[in-house]
Design a protein that fits this description.
The chain has one domain: Arc Repressor Mutant, subunit A, CATH 1.10.10. The chain is about 70% helix and about 0% strand. The model has no long low-confidence stretch (mean pLDDT about 90). The protein contains 3 helices and no strands. α1 packs antiparallel against α2. It is globular, with a radius of gyration of 9 Å. It is mainly α. InterPro entries: Mos1_HTH.
Length: about 45
């Protein structure tokens, strides 16, 4: 799952989404199996 989330983060970066927007989308998609906000922000 982590690899899938990293690809999703890279995609959101290309769309110029903020870390908060990206985290919210990941939370919707992956529910409880989501990376933490600090990990998303680091990417």
């Amino acid at each position: 799952r982590t690899l899938e989330q990293r690809y999703a983060i890279k995609f959101c970066v290309k769309l110029q989404k903020t870390a908060k927007e990206t985290f919210d989308l990941l939370t919707q998609a992956f529910k409880n199996d989501c990376l933490s906000y600090s990990q998303v922000k680091k990417w």
